[in-house]
From TrEMBL:
Domain of life, per lineage: Bacteria
Subcellular location: Cell inner membrane; Cell membrane
UniProt keyword terms in alphabetical order: Cell inner membrane, Cell membrane, Membrane, Transmembrane, Transmembrane helix, Transport
Natural source organism: Serinibacter salmoneus
Protein name in UniProt: Thiamine transport system permease protein
Length: 563
């Protein structure tokens, strides 16, 4: 008995120290490379001659341009979110409540846009809508509908997954009972199924609104200054006008919008998780019927799913086809030109930029996975004390902020904040990987956390009762599930880092650009050759990202959570 007590106290000390490090190391990393640069940039706009000056708020918020930018941001985000949900709801019914040949392929196709780099999405829609493109006759190039369509295209896969993963777990007997009592199919859906789906729909809407409101490359490529959002306006104020005060005020405004979207997302996600725990597993999905006796819902779902496939497939197909065409003939010349620097466009070849992107993304992925795994393990705990549970909820919200705060703000904050010891890394090659890791860390956490939270705490308690120490409990209980979900987390981190453009556009050296930066530079230079190279480079980037995610999807554990 006497020897057991000191041993138990020793384990408690070791366990406390280990969990403290698991919290403090990621927080130190996020504080140094996220909070400090962002707050430094914001503070620069509110300090004049060493004194606090809030006059920038009245100047910026009193400018009609600011309200026009805010109106564009909210309008584009709201309409883009609504369009994505309108297409996603019927598609989720067909893909998750019904089965048909090729269902897996359609699911995969609709998931492609979400993992594509935003600059590729912008280039794909330019190729589709520009003069000479398949839909060029509509005159929608550089228009509001083009931006909204691209935003919906980017997020439709996320909406289908989030809604469909809940819908397939609903017990169909509830709706069948309503039908047996005389309700029409439409009324049974509206009164039984739709209320059960509302938490998932609200959670998807809040996340899609967040991604739409912080879109940068899509708006920059398709709309430019004419349809500038807050994100684009921050970039313009810092790079074109050198107005840090205006950029700081806009960053605060964007932070408020992001915080509200994250709060709504967290609340609705909690409701959805609680609801799912109360529902029984669903029965195998019936076949999708389109002939005689088919329901109106099935027919509508099939029609909208086909429309969604066309909506997703057409820009991607157009991008590929136009990259293989020159002067009306089929050719690989645009791909051959990737070994050159274009016509007065680049300082290095596209293939050199591709190597840079792969090297930088690999370093960013390692950092994001290490920090993300540590935070996921901490956030998956269920402490007994109420104050500790509230602290974990607060930590969960804080680590999500890099996903929504302007990447432009982060990149420019790096330039003005990380230039003095001990954080003098402005000239270091690790600067871009760190910035990209900031964007990838929340995705790693959102990928791994639902899997870890699914572990029954009694398993850990049973292992401890049988004499396993803290390390052995972590290795034997949490370890297998961490390993199973790690593949998808690695894929997300690597893919997101490959396509990151906002912060990298500030930090990339002229002699070491990444592939998204090179694509944007090619688009900004006149000449058919440069434009063709931008199309070919976009295809290369899309294939790289798609290949990474295909491999990662094969490693997805059964029941892995969604964003």
């Amino acid at each position: 008995m006497g020897a057991g007590l000191p041993r138990e106290r020793g384990w408690r000390v070791v366990r406390g120290a280990a969990w403290s490090l698991a919290v403090l190391v990621p927080l130190a990393f996020l504080t140094a490379f996220f909070a400090y640069p962002v707050l430094t940039l914001v503070a620069r706009g509110f300090v004049t001659d060493g004194a606090l000056d809030l006059g920038g708020f009245s100047e910026v918020l009193g400018d009609a341009r600011t309200w026009r930018v805010l109106r564009h941001t909210l309008t584009q985000a709201l309409v883009g979110t609504a369009l994505a949900l309108l297409l996603a709801l019927p598609a989720a019914h067909a893909l998750y409540r019904r089965r048909f040949p090729g269902r897996g392929a359609v699911r995969g196709l609709l998931s492609v846009p979400f993992v594509l780099p935003s600059v590729v999405v912008g280039v794909a829609f330019r190729a589709l809508l520009a003069e000479g493109g398949p839909l060029g006759f509509l005159g929608l190039d550089r228009s509001f509908p083009a931006i909204v369509a691209a935003l919906a295209f980017f997020n439709i896969g996320l909406a289908v997954r989030m809604i469909g993963s809940v819908w397939e777990r609903l017990d169909p007997r509830t709706e069948e009972a309503a039908r047996a009592l005389g309700a029409s199919p439409a009324r049974a859906f509206a009164t039984v199924t739709l209320p059960a789906l509302l938490p998932a729909i609200a959670s998807a809407a809040s996340l899609i609104f967040l991604f739409c409101s912080t879109a940068f490359a899509v708006v920059l490529v398709l709309g430019g200054q004419q349809f500038a959002t807050i994100e684009v306006e921050i970039w313009l104020q810092t790079t074109q006008f050198l107005d840090l005060r205006a950029a700081s005020v806009l960053s605060v405004v964007q932070l408020v919008v992001v915080a509200l979207a994250l709060w709504v997302s967290a609340r609705t996600r909690d409701h959805a998780e609680r609801a799912l725990r109360l529902l029984p597993a669903s029965t195998p999905a019936p076949r999708l019927r389109l002939g005689r006796g088919a329901s109106g819902l099935d027919r509508a779902a099939a029609a909208v799913t086909a429309l969604a496939v066309i909506f997703v497939g057409l820009p991607l197909t157009t991008l590929l086809v136009r990259s293989l065409r020159q002067d009306g003939a089929w050719t690989l010349q645009h791909y051959a030109n990737l070994t050159t620097t274009g016509t007065n466009a680049l300082t290095v070849s596209v293939w050199q930029a591709t190597r840079n992107s792969l090297t930088i993304a690999l370093a960013a992925m390692v950092m994001a996975v290490v920090i993300g795994v540590m935070l996921s393990l901490v956030l998956s705990r269920t402490p007994r004390r109420r104050s500790a549970r509230h602290a974990l909820r607060g930590l969960d919200a804080l680590v999500m902020l890099p996903l929504g705060v302007s990447a432009v703000t982060v990149g420019f904050g790096f330039l003005i904040a990380l230039d003095k010891p001990p954080l003098d890394v402005r000239s270091s090659l690790v600067l871009i990987p760190i910035a990209q890791a900031m964007v990838a860390i929340p995705l790693v956490i959102r990928t791994m956390l639902p899997v870890l939270r699914a572990i029954d705490p009694r398993l850990r308690q049973a292992a401890a009762v049988l004499g396993a120490g803290p390390g052995r409990v972590l290795w034997s209980v949490d370890g297998p599930l961490v390993t199973r979900s790690l593949g998808l987390a690695i894929g997300f981190a690597f893919a997101v880092s490959l396509g990151e453009f906002g912060a990298t556009s500030f930090l990339a050296r002229p002699d070491r650009p990444t592939l998204p930066v090179v694509i944007y530079r090619l688009l900004g230079r006149p000449g058919e050759g440069n434009y063709g190279m931008a199309l070919a480079a976009s295809v290369v980037l899309a294939v790289m990202v798609g290949g990474v995610m295909m491999i990662a999807e094969r490693l997805r554990p059964v029941g892995a959570g969604q964003l």
